[in-house]
Amino acid sequence: xxxxxxxxxxxxxxxxGIGRACARVFASYxxxxxxVARREDRLAELVSKLxxxxxxxxxxxxxxxxxxxxxxxxxxxxxxxxxEPDVLVNNAGLASGLSRLQEGDFSDWDRMIDxxxxxxxxxxxxxxxxxxxxxxxxxxxxxxxxxxIVYPAGNVYCATKFAVRALxxxxxxxxxxxxxxxxxxxxxxxQTEFSRVRFKGDEKRAAKTYEGFKPLQxxxxxDAVFYVVNTPKHVNIQDLIxxxxxxxxxxxxxxxxx
Length: 258
Ligand code: NDP
Ligand code: 8X3
Known about the structure:
44% of the residues lie in helices and 16% in strands. It has helices spanning 17-28, 40-54, 68-80, 106-134, 155-174, 194-198, 203-209, 218-229, and strands at 8-12, 32-37, 58-62, 87-90, 138-142, 181-187, 239-242, 247-249, 252-253.
């Protein structure tokens, strides 16, 4: 059953990876899309592709979710255009660096905290009041297995994903008594630009992350997001962990030959 058709779905971090795959799956089910990221060329290309493939309506906004004032004025623009999201996928996020805490880089810490925690908060704070007013909506937070188990040198990235899990619980509690659903989708290793960003463009090191096993593809996660959003009104999947079969947790990853 398609409960998505005609719904307005807002996706942050839609220019790449999981967000882009979510845009494609929701477009294929007839959603109206509002896509957000910083790279305009990527968004423009995606929107024209989606229009060609599905003829649906997609809009994009260049936005840095970590900039509070930018998010506030973007939210006003949405209101002026009477864009009222039924679904918000809080996906924009990143890891920056992989160092032991005692060697950590302050600007890496700021980027991760400002994007993964504050960005998610700013966008949610902008969109939730409208959902509450309409007593309908669904927030999907993209967490991580890193929000359940800390791994060596993962310190701050893991802390941001533990925070996403706490905020997912907090939203569920604060929205008690409303019809608004809140879900967290928590993947293990997904083959995206994530590692390229974490290792600051070091392609060789990034590629090693996915060597010797079959990682999740962004489409696998997008299918899970779609499933969660497409559930009937009385069903709220609050947390869903999705892993490659080869990976049971951050420590148990079976690579060929190991
Ligand atoms: P990608 O690097 O492929 O995509 C990240 C997306 O986030 C891009 O579209 C990027 O767009 C956007 N983004 C980053 N910073 C900002 C910002 N300040 N403002 C707006 N958009 C931003 O990685 P993934 O698809 O893997 O990551 C998506 C989410 O999934 C993240 O939250 C990540 O933590 C999570 N995740 C990833 C896993 C993995 O193994 N890949 C596993 C578990 C969770 P742009 O640069 O154009 O702004
Ligand atoms: C991203 C995947 O490997 O850092 O959340 O847990 S990992």
